[in-house]
Amino acid sequence: MQENTFSKPTALPQLPKSPTGIEGLDEITEGGLPKGRPTLICGSAGCGKTLMGIEFLVRGIQEFDEPGVLMAFEETGEELAANVTSLGFDLKDLQERKLLRVDHVHVDRSEIEETGEYDLEGLFIRLGYAIDSIGAKRVVLDTIESLFSGFPNQAVLRSEIRRLFRWLKDRGVTTVITAERGDGSLTRQGLEEYVSDCVILLDNRVIDQITTRRLRIVKYRGSTHGTNEYPYLITEDGISVLPVTSLRLEHEVSNNIVSSGIPALDDMFGLRGFYQGSSVLITGTAGTAKTTLAAAFAGKICQKGQRCLFFAFEESPQQLTRNMASVGIDLHHHVAEGRLRIEASRPTLNGLEQHLVTLHRLVKEFKPDAVVIDPITNLITVGNISEVRSMLTRLIDFLKVNGITALFTALVSGRGLQQEMTDEGVSSLVDTWISVRDLEGVGERNRGLSILKSRGMAHSNQVREFIVTERGIELLDVVLGPTGIVTGASRLTQQLEEHAQTLAAQQEAERRDRELERRRRMLEANIANLRTEFESVEEELRQISTHEQTRNEALSSGKQRIASANPPAPKAPNPGETGK
Asked: What is the spatial order of strands in the sheet that 405-411 belongs to?
């Protein structure tokens, strides 16, 4: 029987792509725009279509050595150059170095006399010359509506649009075409989105008086891509797209331990602190010293000679440093030494994405080892829960990728189980979760601290009472009463009772020791008396024995004298022996 052999499938060629260099856009497009094909960028006024096209050209020149052509139909070259100067793009310099060609085509319906069929042959000649003059690899047409405005013959226009896209493909240049949003369609003509290989939709919306720009890839022929809506920002560094799905869980981890700034709290962790690069969440009701815990952590980081970036959404830097000085945490010294940077602003100053981009920029500039945000709860004022969770997810992933230890504080409301649920819903995302809460007793309120979770290490399950003193936060020893752990005045009462019991037990032990000593002395006295009596009897017996021995010796001596004074008579001879 002949065996069937199966050859391994050969890898199919992938669609070539041109990276844009725009932060985040290359990630959600999985490499960039389709190389040698047209891409349509459409959207309403003010969403940044022209800027995205220009940044595509500038980044291509600066980062990928690909010259480009910008053909504008609305603004002149001088106007475009002035508009992007604030972003750090010097179009005039690129033109002088023959890396960029800017061509302004003025189209005015009132100045055009239609004498025959309308076509784009003149545009092809002009654009082709611009491409050949600098060897361009990238082309931007801004905007295409101006090219067809005022011409009533829709059939001819649609035909010419198809021919324009085909001509660009034949030239092999990667093209970005901007278009305005139409009614019920992505573009005014309703055809560009069908003949383009890639369509990017930009949107500028206002929700609760907060402006948010969002980007969505409508289609991308021959390639997978992110399909969600992604917020993007226009900053002084250009366009920044910060998608959630582009951040994969592939970051490195560290076994180094970072102290919480409170030795007693470190003792509650199996490894005496947090993992470096992990995320820590401190939750609690108002007045439970969340900011103080965060400041103690920041101060410890700075004491080790490292840098910490502190975002304060409720207090000014001066107020924060003054308040922490009253509890023995000197943040002002670390600020003066340049190890601590405090960024204080109201969350409503910017949208969520602007806050995220600001943090990205400050992390790149300051290069901190730790970041503190106090509190994240205020971010809900500039976005709904899902938006805040999305932003914090990207923030946590960004900090983990860079190996930065993050500490967040969050305000919780309610009691019982509700105190273990944050409004932002990020408690499941963090590595360590510390809960501070009120421990209400009879006529008093005390503070308690517990560790709800700490990934990768053992931790205490006790609720530790703590106090805020002029020396900082002090965790008190656990005191058990008849009904469990006691705090506050009950703790003092329990300690007094235990002290009284200890004193009573000590006094009882001392009494027993004294009684034992008395009995020992009595027994020793009895033993001494018995020893004296024994010695007397022994001496009497010894004398009797001596007298008896002397008497016996005298008797024996008298017998010997008597014996020697009366010698025995001589023995008479035997008659039978006489005469022999």
From this structure: 340-344, 308-312, 370-374, 405-411, 279-284, 432-440, 445-454, 464-469, 472-475
* Alpha-carbon span 479 to 474, nearest angstrom: 15
147 close to 74: Cβ distance less than 8 angstroms: no
> Which sign does the torsion angle of CA 575, 576, 579, 580 carry?
negative
> Alpha-carbon distance 1 to 413, whole Å?
76
449 Cβ contact partners less than 8 Å away, ≥ 6 residues apart:
265, 434, 435, 436, 437, 463, 464, 465, 466, 475
Burial of 540 (0-12, 13-18, 19+ CB in 10 A): exposed
**For 271-286, how does the pLDDT look when each residue is reduced to its tens digit (9 = 90+)?**
999 999 999 999 988 8
65: alpha, beta or left, given left = phi > 0 and alpha = psi -120 to 50? left
Using alpha carbons, list the distances in angstroms from residue 260 to 338, 366, 477.
Answer: 21, 22, 18
- Give the pTM: 0.65
Provide the 8-state DSSP code for 379.
G
Within 13 A of 315's CA, how many CA atoms are on the CB side?
A: 16
- Secondary structure tally for the chain: helices H, strands E: 15, 24
Peptide bond into 550 cis (omega under 30): no
> What span, in angstroms and rounded, lies between the C-alpha atoms of 293 and 260?
8
* SS3 (DSSP) at 553: helix
Pairing of strands 464-469, 472-475: antiparallel
Report the residue count for the chain: 580
Spatial contact of 403 and 365, defined as CB atoms under 8 Å apart: no
- Backbone Cα Rg of the chain: 49
* Neighbouring-strand partners of residue 219: 199
For the stretch 528-540, pLDDT in tens is 888 888 888 888 8
**3-class DSSP state of 119:** coil
Evaluate the CA torsion angle 122, 125, 130, 131 in order and state its sign: positive
